[in-house]
Structures are given as C-alpha cells and as structure tokens.
Amino acid sequence: CKMGYALDSGIRANAASGGMVTALLVYLLKQKEIDGAWVVKTAFTPSGALTYQAMVATTAQQIKEASSSVYMKIPMLSHLDQLRQFDGKVAVVLTPCMMRAFCHILEREENLRKKIVMKIGLFCSGAHDPKATEYALDHCHIPRAGANRLYYRRGHWRGTSSVLYDNGRQADFSYTKSICAYKNAYFFIEQKCLHCQDQFAAASDLSFGDVWLPEVKKEPVKYTGCIVRTKKAHALLAQAMARSIIKMYPMSEEQMLRSQMRALTFKYRGRRWNHALAGF
User: Fold this and answer.
1) Are 96 and 180 in contact (CB under 8 A)?
2) What distance in Å separates the CA atoms of residue 230 and residue 199, rounded to the nearest whole number?
C-alpha cells in the first residue's frame, strides 16, 4: 500500500485526488511502455444530456483531458472493440466490476490479452445513473445547454465541481452539497452495487483511490491511495518515482482501510445511522 501524488501541478489541478493515475499513464506512454490508454471522460449531448466519451488515448494531452473521476454508470465493455481494433500496447482503467469481467474476457481472447500491459483499477463505492448528476446540476441552477465537459471533482480535499461550456465559460458549484450528497445517500445507484464488496478493484495490477484520512486533510496537496499487486507494477511505479513523475509514501493496510472507511462500513456492515442521516 502506498499514497502519493503527481509532481506535475498541472496534472493535479484537474485530478479528483492526487493525479497519480494520469501521471503514471503519461509516463508509460512517453517511455513507450504503452501505445495508448483506454480512458473515459464526461461529455454532453447537444440537448444537454450528460453522457461520456470512451477512447484509446494515444497522446499525453488526450490522457490529461480524461483526468478526474466520473461518478456515473459507464458500460466500458460495450466499447471493447476499441481495444480489439487498436494496434499497439494498452493500459486500461476500469472500475472493480468492469475489471473482473474484463479479466474473464482476457482469459478467452489471447490476442487481446497480449495487448494489455497494465490493468489499473479504481476504488469504487458504486455506480450511479446519470440522472443523479443531472438532478444535482439542475438543483444548483447550473445550465446544461452548451456544456461540453463536467469535472466531478477538482481542487483540494473533497473539491469543487465544474462545468465547461463551448463558449469558454466555466460554472463552479459545491461538490459536497450537491453530487456528493446524493452519491453518499446512495440515490440513483445501481442495485448490484449495494451487494458488491470489491472496494479496491482486486483483479487489477494497480488500484487507486482517495485517501480520506484526517492526518492528510490539511496537507497542501491531495493524496491518491495506491495498492500494488504485481512486481511489474511495483517496478514501473519505482521508475516513475525515481524520475520525479510521482511522489510516494508507504501506507499501512490499516491506514488504507481507514482511508475508505465510510464505503467499507456500508459494504460490510450494512446501512447504519450515518447513512440514514445522509439520506435524510
């Protein structure tokens, strides 16, 4: 277990936590360890409906543009042909359930398996219908017409949500009092997520997520928690740290559990008073 952050402040600026995923993907691309990264970012339809764009990013800029967490249901495996048709080595970024299913597919498809250099999982407490976000945007009087991008979280600690528009305008609003409030109360959540206990994406080579520890709350940078499961992943992280791409510190297993305590409490002990209060 580790925790750390990207040393590039520009990457950290658009990241939900410490930007380690983006920094690592850019590093792997520049070192030619990969030819692309399978990523996703938010988008809006011309009518203002929230949607997403899945792609194999082949440039550092494309990877950076896909930075920041996406808190809505995204059927990434329905876009698997993007990987099948891509000629080159790839790193993939998936939520726990998607990663488990993806690994089963790799067992059957040798050609696809040979392309995958790194499987990166994201800590996940549940996937929500896009309506959850749209409801929050409308409740905060954030117009969706002309919008092209939503950043669910940027900035320090819990962060600020931002919508970017075609005309260059930006609308910021409170993540904590809108999207996070509905998300933590489990509104609009997929029913299967209420039974999933794979918080840390166990099928991945590396998994990343937030570090909600009071001892780092007042630090000048936000941290990303990281769980390393393979020797190759450990070696690549060490290289990135040696070349001043990322900064990392050791983290105990107990700290890692505490860093995700709210979600783990719900998943392993059921709905308790704090969840009832959040819903209220």
Assistant:
1) no
2) 18
Using alpha carbons, select from 106, 114, 266, 113 the residue that is nearest to residue 193. Answer: 266
Cβ(65)–Cβ(10) below 8 Å:
no
- Tell me the residue type at 37: A
Over residues 54-75, the pLDDT tens digits come to 999 999 999 999 999 999 999 9
Tokens of 31: 């070192």
User: What's the rounded Cα separation, in Å, for the pair 185 and 187?
Assistant: 6
Q: How confident is the model at residue 225 (pLDDT cuts 50, 70, 90)?
A: very high
Distance CA 222, CA 231 (A): 26
- pLDDT digits over 83-128, tens only? 999 999 999 999 999 999 999 999 999 999 999 999 999 999 999 9
State the sign of the Cα–Cα–Cα–Cα dihedral 205, 21, 242, 223: negative
SS3 46: coil
At 210, list the tokens.
Answer: 């937030």
List Cβ neighbours of 120 (8 Å cut-off, separation of 6 or more).
21, 24, 25, 91, 92, 93, 94, 204, 205, 206, 207, 208
